[in-house]
C-alpha cells in the first residue's frame, strides 16, 4: 500500500480503530486518538526506525484499509482489543503468545472483581485464574499502561471492586484499600447486590466493545426507572450516559518520549511505580526499601533494601535522600514512571531535589498518613481518581507494599541484633 492511496479513505480527525488488510485478510489492527494523523504515520520515510521491520513488511503487503470511528479514545482501546482477539492479525501477534499480553478479567465469585492480569496467570482453555473460574475475559491489550488507565476511567462511571483478594477478605491492607477507594467513589458506596450486578453487566459490555448497545441499554433502563418513579436511579443513569460521551481520556495516548535521555531506560513491560519507605527505632537498625508495582501488580523480585549509612539519628528526610541517591546509582534498573514517598510536602520536596541534582525527570507523589498510619491525602492532589496519570489506588498499594516490606526487614534486623 502506498501513501497516495490514503486520499480515497477521507480519514477524519477523531478517535477510532483502523485495520490494514490484504484482500479480505486482516494484517494489523490499531487504535488512534486522531485517525488521520495515526494512519498517515505508517507512510513516513523513517517507518522502519520508528516501528520496525514487521510493520514495514505489513504495509508492503497491505492492499487496503478500513476504519471505524469511536466517540472516545477509551472506546477505541476496547475495540482494538476485541478486534485483535477476533482476527489475530499476524503483525499484532507474530512472535508472541497469549502469555505476553495483558487481559481484563471478571471473576466468577459471589461479588465479582474486575482485574488486570498477565496471560501467564490465566488458563485460557478452562477460562480460569489460579484455579478459579472466570465470568469473562477480555483482551489481549498491547499496552499495560493504557489498560490500567482504561479500567480506571471505566470505574469512574461504573464502580467495581478490584481488590487483590476476594471481597470480604479481612486483611489489613485490603480493608484499608476498600475504605479509601469507597471514600473517593472508586468502589460502590452502599453495596447492593442487584445494583452491583447491573454495574458489572455494564462493565462487561464496555470491555467487549459493545458501547452502542450499552448506551441503548442505559437509555432503556433510565426510562424504565423514571416511569417507575425511581428518580435517583434514573439520574445516576443519565450521569453515566453523559460520562460515556465526555470521558477525559487524553492520558490514554501517552507520549512515550516525555522523559529526557537519562530516563530512556524506563521499563517497557508496563506502567512502573517505585515506592520508598524507611523503618527504624530512635535511629537504630535503620533500613530503607524500594517496592515496585507494575500495571497494578506488586513485583516482589524487583524490591530492593538499603541499610542506611549516613544518618544515625531519627532523620527520615536524610534517609530518604540517601536511599534515592543510591537507587539512582543503578541505571541498569528500569526507571519508574512515578515515584511514591511516605510523608508530606517536606519528603516530596526532598525527593524532587535528589532527582533534580541527578538531572532525572520523574514525577514524585507523597502519601500523607493520619495518626493511625492510614492514608489521609495524596500530594499533589489529583482529580479524585488519579495523579500524574496513575490511579490513586495503585499509589496507595505501592506505598503500603513499601511500608510492609520495610517493617519486615526492620523486624529481622532487630532479631539479629538481639542475639548478640
UniProtKB/TrEMBL annotation:
<dbReference type="InterPro" id="IPR038476">
    <property type="entry name" value="UvrC_RNase_H_dom_sf"/>
</dbReference>
<dbReference type="InterPro" id="IPR036876">
    <property type="entry name" value="UVR_dom_sf"/>
</dbReference>
<dbReference type="GO" id="GO:0009381">
    <property type="term" value="F:excinuclease ABC activity"/>
</dbReference>
<feature type="domain" description="UvrC family homology region profile">
    <location>
        <begin position="209"/>
        <end position="355"/>
    </location>
</feature>
<feature type="domain" description="UVR">
    <location>
        <begin position="212"/>
        <end position="247"/>
    </location>
</feature>
<dbReference type="InterPro" id="IPR047296">
    <property type="entry name" value="GIY-YIG_UvrC_Cho"/>
</dbReference>
<protein>
    <recommendedName>
        <fullName>Excinuclease ABC subunit C</fullName>
    </recommendedName>
</protein>
<dbReference type="Pfam" id="PF02151">
    <property type="entry name" value="UVR"/>
</dbReference>
<dbReference type="GO" id="GO:0009380">
    <property type="term" value="C:excinuclease repair complex"/>
</dbReference>
<dbReference type="InterPro" id="IPR001943">
    <property type="entry name" value="UVR_dom"/>
</dbReference>
<dbReference type="Pfam" id="PF08459">
    <property type="entry name" value="UvrC_RNaseH_dom"/>
</dbReference>
<dbReference type="InterPro" id="IPR050066">
    <property type="entry name" value="UvrABC_protein_C"/>
</dbReference>
<dbReference type="GO" id="GO:0006289">
    <property type="term" value="P:nucleotide-excision repair"/>
</dbReference>
<dbReference type="InterPro" id="IPR000305">
    <property type="entry name" value="GIY-YIG_endonuc"/>
</dbReference>
<feature type="domain" description="GIY-YIG">
    <location>
        <begin position="13"/>
        <end position="93"/>
    </location>
</feature>
<dbReference type="InterPro" id="IPR035901">
    <property type="entry name" value="GIY-YIG_endonuc_sf"/>
</dbReference>
<dbReference type="InterPro" id="IPR001162">
    <property type="entry name" value="UvrC_RNase_H_dom"/>
</dbReference>
Amino acid at each position: 500500500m502506498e501513501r497516495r492511496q490514503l486520499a480515497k479513505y477521507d480519514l477524519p480527525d477523531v478517535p477510532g480503530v483502523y485495520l490494514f488488510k490484504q484482500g479480505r485478510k486482516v494484517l494489523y489492527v490499531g487504535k488512534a486518538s486522531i485517525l488521520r494523523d495515526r494512519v498517515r504515520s505508517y507512510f513516513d520515510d523513517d517507518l522502519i526506525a520508528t516501528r520496525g521491520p514487521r510493520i514495514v513488511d505489513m504495509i508492503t503487503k497491505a492492499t487496503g484499509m478500513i476504519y471505524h470511528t469511536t466517540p472516545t479514545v477509551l472506546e477505541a482501546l476496547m475495540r482494538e482489543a476485541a478486534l485483535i482477539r477476533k482476527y489475530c492479525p499476524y503483525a499484532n501477534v507474530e512472535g508472541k503468545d497469549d502469555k505476553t499480553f495483558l487481559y481484563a478479567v471478571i471473576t466468577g465469585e459471589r461479588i465479582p472483581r474486575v482485574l488486570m492480569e498477565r496471560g501467564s496467570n490465566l488458563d485460557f482453555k478452562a477460562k480460569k485464574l489460579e484455579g478459579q473460574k472466570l465470568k469473562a475475559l477480555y483482551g489481549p491489550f498491547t499496552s499495560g499502561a493504557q489498560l490500567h488507565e482504561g479500567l480506571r476511567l471505566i470505574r469512574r462511571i461504573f464502580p467495581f471492586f478490584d481488590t487483590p483478594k476476594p471481597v470480604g477478605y479481612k486483611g489489613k491492607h485490603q480493608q484499608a484499600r476498600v475504605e479509601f477507594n469507597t471514600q473517593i467513589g472508586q468502589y460502590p458506596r452502599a453495596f447492593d447486590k442487584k445494583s452491583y450486578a447491573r454495574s458489572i453487566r455494564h462493565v462487561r459490555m464496555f470491555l467487549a466493545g459493545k458501547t452502542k448497545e450499552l448506551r441503548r441499554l442505559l437509555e432503556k433502563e433510565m426510562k424504565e426507572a423514571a416511569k417507575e418513579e425511581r428518580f435517583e436511579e434514573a439520574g445516576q443513569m443519565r450521569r453515566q450516559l453523559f460520562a460515556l460521551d465526555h470521558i477525559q481520556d487524553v492520558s490514554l495516548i501517552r507520549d512515550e518520549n516525555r522523559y529526557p535521555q537519562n530516563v530512556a531506560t524506563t521499563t517497557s513491560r508496563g506502567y512502573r511505580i517505585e515506592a520508598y519507605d524507611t523503618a527504624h527505632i530512635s535511629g537504630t537498625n535503620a533500613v530503607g526499601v524500594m517496592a515496585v508495582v507494575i500495571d497494578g501488580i506488586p513485583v516482589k523480585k524487583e524490591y530492593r533494601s538499603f541499610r542506611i549509612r549516613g544518618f544515625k539519628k531519627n532523620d527520615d528526610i536524610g534517609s530518604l535522600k540517601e536511599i534515592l541517591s543510591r537507587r539512582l546509582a543503578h541505571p541498569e534498573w528500569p526507571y519508574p514512571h512515578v515515584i511514591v514517598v511516605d510523608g508530606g510536602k517536606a519528603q516530596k520536596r526532598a525527593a524532587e531535589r535528589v532527582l533534580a541534582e541527578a538531572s532525572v525527570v520523574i514525577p514524585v507523589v507523597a502519601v500523607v498518613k493520619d495518626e493511625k498510619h492510614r492514608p489521609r491525602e495524596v500530594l499533589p492532589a489529583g482529580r479524585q481518581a488519579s495523579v500524574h496519570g496513575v490511579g490513586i489506588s495503585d499509589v496507595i498499594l505501592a506505598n503500603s507494599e513499601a511500608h510492609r516490606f520495610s517493617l519486615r526487614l526492620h523486624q529481622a534486623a532487630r532479631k539479629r541484633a538481639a542475639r548478640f
